[in-house]
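debug: dumping io for the single-chain case to check the tokenizer round-trip. Nothing else runs in this session.
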Amino acid sequence: MAAEFDPKNTNLADDTLGDFLRDDVECDLEIVPGVGKAAAAKLNDAGIFTTYQLIGKFLMFKESEDVRSHLNAFQTWLQEVGVNSHRTTITKAIAEKVDIFLPGTFDATLYE
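debug: decoded output
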């Protein structure tokens, strides 16, 4: 079953997200909110070793202007590679980070 992204399904604290959005991107995957040791190991198994690569993978799913389809595709991919926890948190954090330099990547008003 495809994983539907819904930002209401995360308990990502505003200060944690704010810190991630303000800070520079670092290689260490575990700086991404929601990525702990287990998720990092699953991402490594899928060939993703850095935050840069995770952002690149996220962008690979951008096939149109349809924000919902993009976020759903990324979240489904996380599920497929075995990331079992915090998929919505990871998706939201990466989408909002990318939206800083590629506006339109994330639109919270779609989920109100």
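debug: round-trip ok. Helices lie at 14-22, 37-45, 51-60, 67-80, 87-101.
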